[in-house]
Amino acid sequence: MRFKELFEKSADAIMLWGCDGLVDCNQATVELFAYSHKDQLYSRHPSDISSEFQPDGQSSSEKTNVMIAKVLQTGCHRFEWIHKRANGEEFWAEVMLTRIPYNTTQIVHGVVRDISDRKLAEEEIQQAQLQIVQSEKMSALGNLVAGVAHEINNPVGFIAGNLQPASDYINDTFRLIDLYQQEYPDPTAAIQDEIEAIDLEYVREDLPKLISSMKVGIDRIREISNSLRTFSRADRDRKISFNIHEGIDSTILILRHRLKANGNRPEIEVVKKYGNLPQIECFPGQLNQVFMNIVANAIDALEESNQGRNVTDIKTNPNRITITTCRGQQKTIVVKIADNGTGIPEERRERIFDNLFTTKTVGKGTGLGLAIARQIVEDNHRGKLSCNSVLVKGTEFVIEIPVF
Questions:
Q1: I want to staple 396 with a disulfide (CB 3.0 to 4.6 A). Which of 69, 227, 338, 376 is the partner?
Q2: What pLDDT, on the 0 to 100 scale, is given for residue 327?
Q3: The whole model's pTM is what?
Q4: CA nearest to 134, candidates 360, 353, 376
């Protein structure tokens, strides 16, 4: 009688599960699950009061059967679970299951406690942590890249500043040689031998070309330096006008070393299908981080899809990343980054934006990249980041940013 009173007056939901469903429950269970009477809960399977899918991607019925089997085997099990009330509202609960004897069989004694407030607080803490991590990563990366660009600019400026005087000196020297040949048309044998040894006519033709190629190289280095500065633009406390295509181009340039051919595969082709986009008000450094993460993930996916294939096989269906930009509906711009890798299984696709979720090996992924990317797009820019994937065909990430 005393235990029955404790059972009924407990603030936690208490349930007794048998082979055919719920055997008994207390009033706290009825209230927690928003039913009007405990009779409405009888004969229900645990999966009937659980969310259709749990955070790990398993269906509720599959995971419930695994949990019950584990309890019957080990005697007890404690875990966190997403339940649903009679009105369909979902909530987080802490569950403690214990195996107890009942007549000639075994039943499962379950205690369920609503932890929605705690989960909400944890989520807020995680979001704050993500913001801190993102800020620190952007600060560290921005300082590094900006520092590299600055260090490049110093010697590049020195070389570029001396190329024109060097070209002038060369032209002056050639004019002097021409004058000597005009005034002294019959050189000595030693001078003639030296002219032939150094192939003066070839030097006269090739040296200006060398200077010209050096100028092209300097321009290329300056382009790289400018791209680095574009990528690392320090975000201020307000949005600034930015050309999205410049951000994408700078990202591709920084990742070019990973796109180049190597001993295992040909070069990864990057196809740009740029639309006519206006400049948008945004945090450029943050969006560049999103582009960097998604393109880097696409390269990882293609590398993974190449496993077991030789170079000839890959050439038949080349690795490709396609970047498409266009105007969207309701005053938005859209950036689509797609690869032709193996795609993402549905159970993984459900969780790719979760904090700390990663399928990469230890040391190769933190599980923060896409979580931070979504926060940047959706929280900081009021946009949308989504993923479409088809097994064997590939994956596409879609970034939508409003134009204000």
A1: 338
A2: 93
A3: 0.56
A4: 376
